[in-house]
Amino acid sequence: MVQNRVKELRKERNILQEELAAKLNVSQQTISRIENGTSSLPADILIDLSKFFDVSIDYILCYSDARHTLEYQLEYKQVSERNYQLCRAYERLDKSNQTLIFQLVEQLSKPE
């Protein structure tokens, strides 16, 4: 049920109804009514919830158990594949070059 998904997502983030309401620019009563199922979920709030929790609208509406959109899943897969290829290339290096690469990455990732 929609109300359970909203409540579940809110509790996962460990935020109060008041905090979620403030983030979405609605009243705490609106969040309470949505979570209790006593109010319908307006499209603008549905979109804001989706963006805030970084989940698909289908997930919030219980049309899908996949939290993220297909676009997000494809992007994640591409990043994972790229990271896998980098790790494989790193593993093919000899130990001295691995050390050099590791030191370079540490140096480049230091905050300025």
Automatic annotation (TrEMBL):
- Native source species: Ruminococcus hominis
Instruction: Report the residue ranges that make up the HTH cro/C1-type domain in this protein.
Output: 6-60
Among PANTHER family, the record links this protein to: HTH-TYPE TRANSCRIPTIONAL REGULATOR XRE, TRACRIPTIONAL REGULATORY PROTEIN-RELATED-RELATED
Q: Give the protein's recorded name.
A: Helix-turn-helix transcriptional regulator
Read off the Pfam families from this record: HTH_3
Q: Which Gene3D superfamilies match?
A: lambda repressor-like DNA-binding domains
UniProt-listed InterPro entries: Cro/C1-type_HTH, Lambda_DNA-bd_dom_sf
Q: Which UniProt keywords apply?
A: DNA-binding
**Record SUPFAM superfamilies:** lambda repressor-like DNA-binding domains (SSF47413)
This protein's source sits in the domain of life called Bacteria
